[in-house]
Amino acid sequence: MSAASPSRAEAASPEASPTETEKVAARPGADGWLFKSWDNEAVLFNTASGDTHYLRPLTLALYETCRDHPGYTVSELTTALAARLGVAESASFREATEDTLHRLHEIGLLEPA
């Protein structure tokens, strides 16, 4: 199980991660995934691979933002996530958002919109 969030070493995808202008969405229903959340954290279990992933608060909030706003670009997701969390949209926040999107994409929870 991932300790802080899905790692880049887990389930590498042959597809490239979304770029700044590509639109992304959470996979509808996330078929094959079992999901359990507590407050602002969650654990996901992939029934096909047997992998378990811990979603820390930022990762869960970003996944939920992707689910709630399918078709947003990476830039739009970053802005929406900053507003949701009540934080400034700094360069380091944008970088953390992009890294987290990459990780969610790698484990199969995001797809192009």
In short:
This protein is of the alpha+beta class and 113 residues long. It has three helices and six strands. The protein has helices spanning 57-68, 74-85, 91-106, and strands at 23-26, 33-38, 41-46, 52-55, 72-73, 110-112.
Word description of this protein:
The chain is built from three helices and six strands; from the N terminus they run ββββαβααβ. The N and C termini lie far apart (28 Å). The protein is α+β, with helices and mostly antiparallel strands and 113 residues long. The model is unreliable at 2-14 (pLDDT under 50). The strands form two sheets. The chain has a three-stranded antiparallel β-sheet with strand order 5-1-6.
Question: Which features does this protein show?
Answer:
113 residues; alpha+beta; three-stranded antiparallel sheet; 3 helices; 6 strands; 22% strand; globular
Structural class: alpha+beta
The largest pleated sheet is described as: 3 strands, antiparallel
Q: Determine the fraction of residues in helical runs and give it as a percent range.
A: 25-40%
Q: Span between N and C termini?
A: 28 Å
Strand content: 15-25%
Backbone shape: globular
Order of helices and strands: EEEEHEHHE
| Spatial strand order of the main sheet | 5-1-6
Summarize the SSE layout with pairings:
Elements: E1 23-26, E2 33-38, E3 41-46, E4 52-55, H1 57-68, E5 72-73, H2 74-85, H3 91-106, E6 110-112
Antiparallel strand pairs: 1-5, 1-6, 2-3, 3-4
Helix pairs in contact: 1-2, 1-3, 2-3
